[in-house]
What we know:
Blueprint: H1 6-15, H2 36-43, H3 51-66, H4 72-88, H5 92-112, H6 117-130, H7 133-146, H8 151-163, H9 167-180, H10 185-197, H11 201-214, H12 219-231, H13 235-248, H14 253-266, H15 269-282, H16 287-299, H17 303-316, H18 320-326
Helix pairs in contact: 1-8, 1-10, 2-3, 3-4, 4-5, 5-6, 6-7, 6-8, 7-8, 8-9, 8-10, 9-10, 10-11, 11-12, 12-13, 12-14, 13-14, 14-15, 14-16, 15-16, 16-17
Amino acid sequence: xxxxxxxxxxxxxxxxxxxxxxxxxxxxxxxxxxxxxxxxxxxxxxxxxxxxxxxxxxxxxxxxxxxxxxxxxxxxxxxxxxxxxxxxxxxxxxxxxxxxxxxxxxxxxxxxxxxxxxxxxxxxxxxxxxxxxxxxxxxxxxxxxxxxxxxxxxxxxxxxxxxxxxxxxxxxxxxxxxxxxxxxxxxxxxxxxxxxxxxxxxxxxxxxxxxxxxxxxxxxxxxxxxxxxxxxxxxxxxxxxxxxxxxxxxxxxxxxxxxxxxxxxxxxxxxxxxxxxxxxxxxxxxxxxxxxxxxxxxxxxxxxxxxxxxxxxxxxxxxxxxxxxxxxxxx
Length: 331
């Protein structure tokens, strides 16, 4: 199993509020400040925030905007924040409706101030969250035409290309981000992911290594470098990386799986089986863990168990054997 990507989840919260301040340009008149508690709960929510509380706080801001008691910038932020909260509860249609309302606010703002990079950036971010990556890229390009060194626009464009699986263009945008800020941790993590997805494992290892220097307590960075080192046959360093990832986060199923993969390539089949079994206890339908355990069982003499695991893996991911064949693991 390729380790869980760092870009996808973190990007949502990181891009939510970039570029929103300029939407205040379209406010018709000064508005009363929203209660601080609602602003805090809506605009500073994170993955641990209860979605219902975020939705309620953002709705309060949206309702205040309808009464003329909040700025349009706050309303755009609240629609995006509520959309993200709806998305986390599986209410994708409601999330999309909120992103569309935020985009409509930006459309009006751009009509008034077409040369404001912040507004294009904000609309691009809302389009990204809506998964309209082509429109997001167009807005990021517009922002960069106005401000050629706008780091957030390069970063957003890289994320959009990554989601489109256009990894070369994603890497090029991350390169521009890192040229402006060589220690930008999100760009390093996400460029590493793009290098990995495009099969440039050594470059991914370099990016994750730089990230580890900046964030030595980041278990995902250690896990991702473990995986790429194992794929490229650097097995003892890979094992050390996985052990560090698990020291930092002992319950991380992805890191347990990655260590199982490393043990499998080392020929330590009992250790591989133990790790894959532990990973499956946390993520029962993970095809990589099922397939890896199946191979380890076959090679340790458990033909029936191995074939059962491999069949279960192929039922979830029919191409799993081809994927792992590229990693040097075959039945």
